[in-house]
Design brief:
The structure is a single chain. This protein is an all-alpha fold and about 110 residues long. It is built from seven helices and no strands. The N and C termini lie far apart (about 50 Å).
């Protein structure tokens, strides 16, 4: 006797597969993904000063970067947490709702 779960009939399997595809293939998700990339790029630009300082510290200290540049790394993480938070992204989506709709319509065509 095998203890494998019973397989659903072919019609049910097809419906399950289609339901799973809906989230991956929706045009709105694709547009949101594009908006998320643009949002993250803006956050990186806002934290650019900290990143340059960390890069300079890393070049100067080589393998000791982990110890000597810890405070600069912490500043980068704090800056990114502030500018790349889920709450900020939701606000960004609300501000750019028209752009999101345009991207969604553009993706459908």
């Amino acid at each position: 006797m095998s203890s494998s779960p019973p397989t659903p009939p072919p019609a049910d399997r097809a419906q399950i597969k289609d339901d799973g595809r809906e989230g991956r293939l929706s045009f709105r998700r694709f547009a949101e993904h594009k908006m998320k990339r643009a949002f993250k790029e803006e956050a990186i630009k806002k934290c650019d000063v900290h990143m340059k300082q960390f890069g300079q510290c890393a070049q100067e200290n080589g393998l000791l970067v982990v110890f000597k540049c810890r405070d600069l790394n912490k500043k980068i993480n704090e800056c990114m947490a502030e500018h790349n938070s889920p709450e900020r992204f939701e606000a960004y989506l609300k501000e750019h709702q028209e752009d999101l709709e345009k991207l969604t319509l553009k993706s459908k065509n």
